[in-house]
Structure formats: structure tokens, C-alpha cells
Amino acid sequence: MPIQGTTWTREIIRQILYGRDEKLDKLTKDITLPHLYLETCTPSKFNVMHNIPIPRRYFVTHLPAELVNLEKYEKRNIKIVYTLRNPKDRLVSFFHFVKGFPWQGELARFSPDDWNDYFERQMKDPLPLAIRKGESYLDHILSWLPHIKNNKNAILIVYEEMIKNPFEKTKELSEFLGVELSDDEIYEIVKNCSIDNMKKSDMESKSEDGMNRHATKQCFTGTIGKWKNYFTAEQSDEIDRQVEEKMKETGIEFIYE
């Protein structure tokens, strides 16, 4: 799902896999849309990716689990990294994303400039971007959880924990991916993937990935609790109600501040 930390996690993984090799680091830095995302471009992109001389490949997706051929991937022991973010901050970030992006036609109605109008629309008729019509971010999480829990080849990355403990969480992710890194190498990745350096790197990138560039510029602030500047008490209670209804059996406790 957009604006849950996918771009950030993707870059951390790239640096874990390729950052120690100057040639691979340079080669992979500008591989983004459309080749890196499962839901974009035509299947021929996989032929392109197959012929790029890198020893290990990864792909990214915002799709719900039902639209990904997970049975095929699980048979091949492919590792799954799912990034989770609290639904209130995610909704605020998504508000800035849709407001600043040049939607056209029918999609324009999903990006009102007023927060209250936006919130009301999201509650009644969310923008069907990486979710099925009538579903929400919470449904997206629920679609993936069965493939993550009790799966040694899957890991849940919590956005807020990455912000609060970047070294420990980057180390955990590198160990999950089977890449041995020294403490100095992990600290280097943490530094490279800081908010300021991510934005600077994006500005210097030669990639033509306009949506990724837009997401980094508009949404990547690395803050927790920004939702408090937007939500009314009633709006906060509504999200709490939805979380209680849909997530109470999952054991997930979102971090809101």
C-alpha cells in the first residue's frame, strides 16, 4: 500500500544487498519504476531484469496478497518483507500524496484539498489504488498476514520501529536477508537512508520514476504522530473503531507516537 514506508524499505534492502560493491551500487541505484514493481509495465520487464548482471534480485509491490502469485514464490523460498505503518499517519501521508499528484479524469475526485473532505471520502469510497474497491489499508494488511506469520521466509517491518531504532532494525533485516554486515556497515546504511540523504539522493538520481520522486518529495518526512495535526477526535475514534473491528484477532498494536 502506498505511503507506508515502501520506498524507504526498498532503499535499505538495496543497500544491504549491493551497497558494499561500488559497481553494483551504481548499477542498481536507478532501477525503480517500471522494472522493479510487480504491478507496473509488461511481463517483458522480467527479461530485462534477468539480463541485468546482479547476483540477487528483489521486486516491490503495493498489491494485496490475493493479486500476487505467492504460491509460486513460496515454493522457491523467496523472502518476503512487508512494511507496516500506523493507519492514521499513513492516511495523512496519503492525503499529501494524492493532493500533490496530477490525477486526471475520474481519479481527480479522490484528491480534495480539504482534509475533512478527504477523510470523509476515504471512509466512504477509498481511492482504489493497490486495494480492491470498498477495502482499506487494514484489509491490505489482513491479506498479507497469513503469508507472514509462522513463515521463516517472511518478516514484518514496522515503520515506526525503523524510525525509533534504525540500527537494530536494519541489522535485523540484513540478518533476515542472510547478509553479514559489520556494525560500521550497518551504521553507514542508516546514515545513507536518513531522511535528508534519501531526499538528496532522489534529487541526484537519473531515474525517470516520476511517481517515486513525487512520493519522496511529498511524503517522506520520517515522523510519527503527524496525524494529531489533522484528525479531529471523532475521526481518530473512527479509525480506532475500524482497527478494533478488523485487527483485534491479529495481535498487531500500532504505534501512534
Strand content: under 5%
What is the CATH C level class, in words? Alpha Beta
Proper CATH architecture: 3-Layer(aba) Sandwich
The stretches of 5 or more residues where confidence is low (pLDDT under 50) are none
Helix content: 40-55%
E-strand count? 2
Average predicted local confidence, pLDDT: 85
CATH topology: Rossmann fold
Quickly count the domains.
1
Protein described:
The chain is mainly α and 257 residues long. It has one domain: Rossmann fold, CATH 3.40.50. It has helices spanning 6-18, 22-28, 44-51, 70-75, 87-100, 115-124, 137-148, 159-164, 166-176, 183-192, 195-204, 210-219, 233-247; strands at residues 80-84, 154-158. Strands 1-2 form a two-stranded parallel ribbon. The chain starts with 5 loop residues before the first helix and ends in a 10-residue tail after the last helix.
List keywords for this structure.
Rossmann fold, 13 helices, mainly alpha, two-stranded parallel ribbon, 51% helix, 257 residues
Secondary-structure blueprint:
Elements: H1 6-18, H2 22-28, H3 44-51, H4 70-75, E1 80-84, H5 87-100, H6 115-124, H7 137-148, E2 154-158, H8 159-164, H9 166-176, H10 183-192, H11 195-204, H12 210-219, H13 233-247
Parallel strand pairs: 1-2
